C-alpha cells in the first residue's frame, strides 16, 4: 500500500462503514467458491466427519478465506482506487479505514485457524494458516505487483480448500484432493486472463504486470487456449479415479468442450466488440463451469447418488 494513500485515508477520524461494508471486505463471491470447493474435498475424502464438526470446519475455512480477502483489500487499496472495477470497494471509497480492515482481517485469520484446529486437527489448521499467508503475503504483497505469472502461481491459494477439506475428514490429504487442486489451479489462468484482456487499461494504470500488459494480448490468448486444453482432460480424472460417477463424467466432458470452444473464440476474435464479448463469455462461463464440476461431485458423494464407472486410475 502506498504511503500517500495510507496517509490520506488515515487522516479521517472514523470510518462510515456499515456491517455490509465489512462483509464486502471478505469477498463473499470468493468465499462462496471456497465453501463449495472445501465441501467437495470433504465429500470426496475417504471417511466421514460428524455433521456438526463438519459444519464448524466449513465455517472456519470460509472465514479464513474471507480474512485473506480482507487483508488483500487492505494491502491493495492504493491500486484498487485507480481501477474502475475496484474503486468503489470499502477502503478506496473511504467507508472503511485501512487500519480497521487490517485489524479485522488479522482477527478473523487468527480466529478461523484456532477454531479449525480445535474442532478438527492440526494439519487442517496449518493448511488454512498457510493458505491465508500465501494469498495475503506471497500473492498480494509480492507476486501480484512483480510478475506476470502472478495469477498462475497465486492461483494455488484458491486451489488449497479441497485439500483442507480432505484434511478435516482424514487428518491427511491424498490423490483425491490433489486432483481437485489441479483442476482449480489450471482453471485460474483462463478465468482471470479473460477478464484481464478486457480490463488491461485498468491494470496498466495501476502498474500491475498482468499477462496482457506484459506479454501482449496475442500471447495471452494463446495461453488461455493452452491452459484450457490441459484443464479439460484433467477435470475428467475424478471419474477415471472412481470418486466421480457417470453424471460427473458427462458434465465434465461437455462443459470442458465448451470451455475449449470459448477459449478458441477468445483466440480467434482479437479486435473490437467481438473480442470483448468473447472474453466476457469465457469469464462468465468459467465460473459456472467450476461450480458445476464441484457441485456434481458433492451430489454424487454426499448424497449417495453415484453411478460408478469402472476405476481406471488410482
TrEMBL record:
<dbReference type="InterPro" id="IPR030470">
    <property type="entry name" value="UbiA_prenylTrfase_CS"/>
</dbReference>
<feature type="transmembrane region" description="Helical">
    <location>
        <begin position="150"/>
        <end position="169"/>
    </location>
</feature>
<dbReference type="InterPro" id="IPR000537">
    <property type="entry name" value="UbiA_prenyltransferase"/>
</dbReference>
<feature type="transmembrane region" description="Helical">
    <location>
        <begin position="55"/>
        <end position="75"/>
    </location>
</feature>
<comment type="pathway">
    <text>Porphyrin-containing compound metabolism; heme O biosynthesis; heme O from protoheme: step 1/1.</text>
</comment>
<dbReference type="Pfam" id="PF01040">
    <property type="entry name" value="UbiA"/>
</dbReference>
<feature type="transmembrane region" description="Helical">
    <location>
        <begin position="30"/>
        <end position="49"/>
    </location>
</feature>
<keyword id="KW-0808">Transferase</keyword>
<feature type="transmembrane region" description="Helical">
    <location>
        <begin position="247"/>
        <end position="268"/>
    </location>
</feature>
<protein>
    <recommendedName>
        <fullName>Protoheme IX farnesyltransferase</fullName>
        <ecNumber>2.5.1.141</ecNumber>
    </recommendedName>
</protein>
<dbReference type="InterPro" id="IPR006369">
    <property type="entry name" value="Protohaem_IX_farnesylTrfase"/>
</dbReference>
<keyword id="KW-1133">Transmembrane helix</keyword>
<keyword id="KW-0350">Heme biosynthesis</keyword>
<keyword id="KW-0472">Membrane</keyword>
<keyword id="KW-0812">Transmembrane</keyword>
<dbReference type="InterPro" id="IPR044878">
    <property type="entry name" value="UbiA_sf"/>
</dbReference>
<feature type="transmembrane region" description="Helical">
    <location>
        <begin position="175"/>
        <end position="198"/>
    </location>
</feature>
<feature type="transmembrane region" description="Helical">
    <location>
        <begin position="224"/>
        <end position="241"/>
    </location>
</feature>
<feature type="transmembrane region" description="Helical">
    <location>
        <begin position="122"/>
        <end position="143"/>
    </location>
</feature>
<comment type="function">
    <text>Converts heme B (protoheme IX) to heme O by substitution of the vinyl group on carbon 2 of heme B porphyrin ring with a hydroxyethyl farnesyl side group.</text>
</comment>
<keyword id="KW-1003">Cell membrane</keyword>
<comment type="similarity">
    <text>Belongs to the UbiA prenyltransferase family. Protoheme IX farnesyltransferase subfamily.</text>
</comment>
<feature type="transmembrane region" description="Helical">
    <location>
        <begin position="280"/>
        <end position="299"/>
    </location>
</feature>
<feature type="transmembrane region" description="Helical">
    <location>
        <begin position="96"/>
        <end position="116"/>
    </location>
</feature>
Amino acid at each position: 500500500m502506498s504511503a500517500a494513500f495510507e496517509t490520506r485515508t488515515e487522516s479521517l477520524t472514523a470510518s462510515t462503514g456499515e456491517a455490509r461494508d465489512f462483509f464486502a471486505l471478505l469477498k463473499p463471491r470468493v468465499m462462496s467458491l471456497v465453501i463449495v470447493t472445501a465441501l467437495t474435498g470433504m465429500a470426496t475424502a475417504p471417511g466421514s466427519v460428524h455433521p456438526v464438526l463438519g459444519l464448524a470446519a466449513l465455517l472456519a475455512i470460509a472465514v479464513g478465506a474471507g480474512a485473506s480477502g480482507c487483508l488483500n483489500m487492505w494491502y491493495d487499496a492504493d491500486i484498487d482506487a485507480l481501477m474502475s472495477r475496484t474503486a468503489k470497494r470499502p477502503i478506496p471509497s473511504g467507508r472503511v479505514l485501512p487500519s480497521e480492515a487490517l485489524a479485522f482481517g488479522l482477527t478473523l485469520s487468527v480466529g478461523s485457524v484456532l477454531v479449525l484446529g480445535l474442532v478438527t486437527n492440526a494439519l487442517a489448521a496449518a493448511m488454512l494458516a498457510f493458505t491465508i499467508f500465501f494469498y495475503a503475503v506471497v500473492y498480494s504483497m509480492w507476486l501480484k505487483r512483480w510478475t506476470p505469472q502472478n495469477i498462475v502461481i497465486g492461483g494455488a491459494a484458491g486451489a488449497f480448500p479441497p485439500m483442507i477439506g480432505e484434511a478435516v475428514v482424514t487428518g491427511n490429504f491424498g490423490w483425491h484432493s490433489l486432483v481437485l487442486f489441479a483442476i482449480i489451479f489450471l482453471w485460474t489462468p483462463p478465468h482471470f486472463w479473460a477478464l484481464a484482456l478486457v480490463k488491461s487499461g485498468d491494470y496498466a494504470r495501476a502498474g500491475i504486470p498482468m499477462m496482457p500488459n506484459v506479454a501482449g494480448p496475442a500471447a495471452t490468448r494463446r495461453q488461455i487456449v493452452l491452459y484450457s486444453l490441459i484443464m479439460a482432460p484433467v477435470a475428467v480424472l475424478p471419474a477415471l479415479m472412481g470418486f466421480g460417477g457417470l453424471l460427473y463424467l458427462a458434465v465434465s466432458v461437455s462443459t470442458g468442450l465448451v470451455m475449449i470452444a470459448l477459449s478458441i473464440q477468445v483466440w480467434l476474435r482479437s479486435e473490437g466488440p467481438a473480442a470483448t464479448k468473447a472474453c466476457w463469455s469465457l469469464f462468465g462461463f468459467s465460473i459456472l463451469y467450476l461450480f458445476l464440476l464441484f457441485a456434481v461431485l458433492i451430489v454424487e458423494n454426499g448424497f449417495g447418488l453415484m453411478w460408478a464407472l469402472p476405476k481406471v486410475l488410482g
